[in-house]
Design a protein that fits this description.
single chain; mainly alpha; Four Helix Bundle (Hemerythrin (Met), subunit A); 0% strand; elongated; binds fe (ii) ion
Length: 142
């Protein structure tokens, strides 16, 4: 169920363990985490107007973050750049689809909660695996 899987993303311990050392990117990760937490809260409380607004904000934040992160790819010889960028596109497509689903009132709120949980779990794989791998190739802070 949604609540159980979201408990994972809402555990903030991983955020401090998974800093990549670029302040703006680490701040993005915290911001995205906070936005998902607020979104989950709003959906669980069935505050649908808030859900829609938070979801739109989350899409923008994730899009901005991926652009910022991908800008780092060309600064260093990063061999996994293409796969990492493909993973970002896949995540963004899923998030966009979940946002479109929010426009359909008949699908609220449990489908949306499940969708958010799945997205949060997949996003974790980007942070923990791909971003941490990228860290090994980065040498300076911004
Ligand atoms: Fe990231
Ligand atoms: Fe990433």
């Amino acid at each position: 169920m949604g609540t159980d899987s979201t408990g994972f993303i809402l555990d903030t311990a991983w955020l401090s363990l998974c800093r990549i050392g670029i302040r703006s990117i680490d701040a993005d990760h915290q911001d995205i985490h906070d936005r998902i937490a607020r979104l989950h809260e709003a959906c669980a409380a069935r505050r649908f107007a808030d859900c829609r607004e938070l979801m739109i904000g989350l899409v923008s934040a994730v899009e901005r973050h991926f652009r910022r992160e991908e800008a780092q790819f060309s600064r260093v010889p990063y061999p996994n750049a293409r796969h990492h960028a493909d993973h970002h596109r896949h995540l963004l497509n899923r998030l966009t689809a979940a946002t479109a689903a929010l426009a359909d009132p008949s699908r609220l709120p449990d489908h949306i909660l499940d969708g958010i949980d799945v997205f949060a779990s997949v996003l974790m794989t980007d942070h923990v695996a791909l971003d941490m791998e990228l860290r090994a190739y980065l040498t300076s802070d911004d």
